[in-house]
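Good day; I would like, with your permission, to put a structural problem before you. What I wish to show you is a protein chain and, alongside it, a tokenised description of its three-dimensional fold. Thank you for your consideration; the sequence and its tokens are set out here:
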Amino acid sequence: MTEIDRILDLLKRAFEGHAWHGPSVREVLAGVTAEQAHARPVPNGHTIWELVRHIAVWEDVGRRRLKGDRAQIKISSTEDWPPPEDTSEAAWESALAALERGHQALVETVRPLPESRLNEPVAAGMSSLYVTLHGVIHHDLYHAGQIAILKKAV
């Protein structure tokens, strides 16, 4: 198994399931309704919906960076934490579908990467491809944990 294969396996486990630590992003989102996703049980905290959109942003940033785009996102901006425009069940399903599509696009960008590039910076002065990919994985899991807690509260 190559290092790229191991990274792809970790991406899959973190997002789709069968991770040793607990539920993946997809597993923790199973059964969440639009009403639950939009609820804010922690004052000044993020909603599940905001977390889903935020995960999608950073999976896309990771994908773009792997392709050489610096993908500069201002932290804590609406670009970083895009709020839902519509809180209907259809809009929630659309947000989940966009998250899935973005994850698959990331996987398809990683799959052909030559292992020899893993230590290269994604752009001048930025993290390596290896650190970027593991960062995306860790970011997904960090927010999956937050979603799991919020899900219990709503």
Q: What stands out?
A: Residues 17 and 24 are 5 Å apart (CA to CA).
